[in-house]
Write a structure and sequence with these properties.
The structure is a single chain. The protein is 31% helix and 23% strand. It is an alpha+beta fold. It folds into two domains: 208 residues, DnaJ domain (Helix Hairpins, Orthogonal Bundle); 94 residues, Urease metallochaperone UreE, N-terminal domain (HSP40/DNAj peptide-binding domain, Sandwich). The strands form five sheets. A four-stranded mixed beta sheet has the order 6-7-13-10. Strands 1-5-4 form a three-stranded mixed beta sheet. It has a two-stranded antiparallel ribbon with strand order 2-3. Strand 8 and strand 9 form a beta hairpin. The longest helix has 19 residues. It is elongated, with a radius of gyration of 28 Å.
Amino acid sequence: MEYKDYYNVLGVDKLASQQDIKKAYRKLARKLHPDVNPGDKGAEARFKEINEAYEVLSDQEKRKTYDELGSSYQQWQRTGGDPRGFDWKQWTARGGQPGGGRVQVEYGDLSDLFGTGGDSSDFFQTIFGNAGGFGAFEQGPRTRRGRDLEQPVEITLEEAYHGTQRLLQVGDEKLEVKIPAGVETGSRVRISGKGKRAGRGGPRGHIYLSVTVLPHATFERNSADLYCVLPLDVYAAVLGGEVAVPSLKGQVMLKIPAETQGGKRFRLKGLGMPNLKDPTSHGDLYADVQILVPTALNDAEKNLFTQLAALRSR
């Protein structure tokens, strides 16, 4: 079986930080994504390869197991050992079992985020189990993975904008799960290897969080864009000026031109929701003007409006 150099796949040093690994992965993922390279089988194969590398190196337990394996394999090669004679069994018995009860997941499996999955290499499946689950295959027939679990979760629009966390209780385990910025109703966040346990030593299933984003009092959402109503008094509409517009980053000031009509839509670029695939990219915020007619006018005010109407009729 061929040894996979995941550091070389991502183009990072073996001492690279988690931030550097994530940065390298995202750069390659955007370059090699199947949507960017339609019909390019080479790019598709590389895309799957970098997903596999990232799944291992972004997980502290898997990375630790992989580093120990790499040292052992390199030592075997230095002593003149034939790669075909390397004893993989000692590693398949370990399987990168997690050591603690807490796990943080950004996208569960980044291959889910970018729209691909499965097709793990024999190397990955032997060392880490099927499709990213913890546990491994013993010599002989494959064991069956445990059952997946699905957990509905409701979050606010603000939480969807900034990203949030939830604490789940699964049996005796407490799982602190990170829900990424940009999720929307229908998004599914995968927590690998924390589902039902399988019999006969098979890998555990996964947990899927089924996300619902609750309605908001101010904003309506359409994909990454947000829409709101901008109440505007008649004086600002006629004379122009600056008004405060609400956004999920806080209020922003918008310059209103004179003689603005009701129904006018202003676009505030980049103030919408973050893109799930690239949180540095945002949609837009659209503010629709609603003219507020003054009420409870006193006699002097009514007189002024009467004079104005007379001037306009000439």
